[in-house]
Amino acid sequence: MEIIHINDLLAGDSVEYLPSVMALGNFDGIHIGHQQLIRRAKELAASAGVPSSVLTFHPHPRQVLGKGGFAHLLTPFEEKMRVMQEFGVDIVYVVHFTLEFAALTAEDFVFRFLDRLHPQSVVVGFDYAFGRGGKSDTSQLKHLAEQIGIDVEIVGAVSRYGEKVSSTLIREKLSYSDVRLVQELLGRPYSIEGIVEHGDKRGRLLGFPTANLGSCEPYMLPRNGVYLVRVLAEDAWYAGVLNIGTKPTFHDSHRRTLEVHLLNFEGDLYDQRVRLELLDYLRDEKKFFSVEELIQQIKADVQEAQVRLAAFAGISY
């Protein structure tokens, strides 16, 4: 997959962009609705004998525009690129989103920007908005694009349980720790990547050594609690039990940490990058009144995790 960064296409450059069939959107989460757009773009591209492409934005437009709730992402940039590659996208155009870009009129976006990328056709969701203030919709996009020979295909909503699948819905469900529903909406488990750092080694003393993830700042995290996860470490998958929270039994700090105990793993992972995939929610985080009480609860968590793994027979670990 080729990744092409576009900083200021309006200023002119010497790149000759290939004709393609292009899916437009921000694609935070790359959920099953986004995947429908990508699949359709790939189908049209294959029929036309041209590459499939995605046009997306970085940073997230809502961050640049100062709109709340998007300081943390479902798919930070590297994660988004990884998932795009898994879906077989040929080209990803990454537009550096600025206030100047946000100020483009609908006409400028289509005639001065989109046209220079030479898409034969574009695929958008029914609720796609663009142009200054996001005031132009798909009908306006179709009207303008077809004037310069670009076909526009509009894809309808994907719904689950009476609700439109969206990044906003997934954020809401993630905040409630409903990670099994989040997995259904994403079409894959929600994942978080981070570097394993040295911790206080208390887990090892308790008999349950943990890998402590460093800053996961770009990611939106679910609420504090204990989760069943699988972990990609050293090119192998392991089942694990993850605690997200402030370790109230030992600390009064409000700093959130991620600690994962890997089942059937020996060794250490210090300074290595690992990927966690959230499979199920086990329980709330809580404060224990003795170390022995905590140890007994961790044992129970591990046993419950092993029982629940049977529900994920299709996922290797």
Structural class by SSE content: alpha/beta
CATH superfamily of the largest domain: HUPs
Uncertain ranges = none
Helical percent range? 25-40%
Keywords: ATP-binding, FAD, Flavoprotein, FMN, Kinase, Multifunctional enzyme, Nucleotide-binding, Nucleotidyltransferase, Transferase
Domain Riboflavin kinase: 185-310
Catalytic activity: FMN + ATP + H(+) = FAD + diphosphate; riboflavin + ATP = FMN + ADP + H(+)
GO molecular function, one term: FMN adenylyltransferase activity
Tell me what you see in this structure.
- One of its GO terms (molecular function) is FMN adenylyltransferase activity.
- It is an enzyme of class 2 (transferase).
- Keywords: ATP-binding, FAD, Flavoprotein, FMN, Kinase, Multifunctional enzyme, Nucleotide-binding, Nucleotidyltransferase, Transferase.
- The chain is α/β, with parallel strands linked by helices.
- The chain has 2 domains: 2-163, Rossmann fold, CATH 3.40.50; 190-312, Riboflavin kinase-like (Elongation Factor Tu (Ef-tu), domain 3, Beta Barrel).
- 29% of the residues lie in helices and 27% in strands.
- The strands form 3 sheets. A 6-stranded parallel sheet has the order 1-4-3-2-5-6, sandwiched between helices. The protein has a 6-stranded antiparallel β-barrel with strand order 9-10-13-12-11-14. Strands 7-8 form a two-stranded antiparallel ribbon.
- A hairpin with a 2-residue loop joins strand 7 and strand 8.
- The two termini are 27 Å apart.
- The model has no long low-confidence stretch (mean pLDDT 89).
